[in-house]
Amino acid sequence: MNALAILGVMVMTAGAVFLAFAGLGLYRMPDTYTRIQAGTKATTLGTILTLVGAALIMPDWGVKLLLIALFLMFTNPLSSQVLARAAHRAGVPATKESKADALAEDREELA
Amino acid sequence: MSTLMQGLGLVIALATIGAATLAILTRSTVTAVLAAGLVSLLASVLFVVLAAPDVAMTEAAIGSGLTTFLFFFVMGRIRRESEK
Amino acid sequence: MTDTLLLPAAIAALALAAAFWRFLVGPRPVDRVVAFDGLTIIAITGLVLSALASGRSIYLDVALVYALLSFLGVIVAARYLEGGEQ
Q: Which ranges carry the MrpA C-terminal/MbhD domain (chain B) (predicted)?
């Protein structure tokens, strides 16, 4: 086991820790919007770190892993945005601690 | 089969059973469709753990992608027709 | 090699359990879609881990198909839920 593989396992562990934080956010957050925030941003970083770690352990698989990472970088923020818009249009209430709702203000201005 | 694969298979199998139970017990149609999609997604990971990647690819494509897409498409059509 | 991967696998299993709990209890359908998205991404990590543990690169193709189709499912579900609850 060479130095690169040890580094790869460390990076993979860091990515798994970020995934665990995302799971903790999904478990603990008070309303839908904060859960979207926790469940899509942190998982993107965690998965990409895991893929980088896998590429360090197995350098021959680099192209395929890069393809998966690129794909996740494109699709994950997109699904986060679509989900947040769907929740807002369906009238899901935010938690009482939230201070502002810029999308609702823009809607009122346009209407 | 290594310890990692055994542990992964056990965790995924338990989650599959939980999702299938939710799909049976829930009253909401959307939740049932989502839970059925999750069952086939987790089942495809289980197929990979059992060293059948081609079966897993088919399960992910048909079971999760096409079936979930079709269910939501048809439910949207039904809602639009009933609103008319 | 495989034994050193047990630590990230165990941490990812914790993340899977937490996201799955949100999928089970999530009061609204939107919460369940969010948990579904998180669960599929955690499962991609599981697929990469199993590819490393068995040393077969074809498992990564499954991860690619998986990422594509789970994204499609989330988009379709969100488009449906935009029309209102239930």
A: 16-80
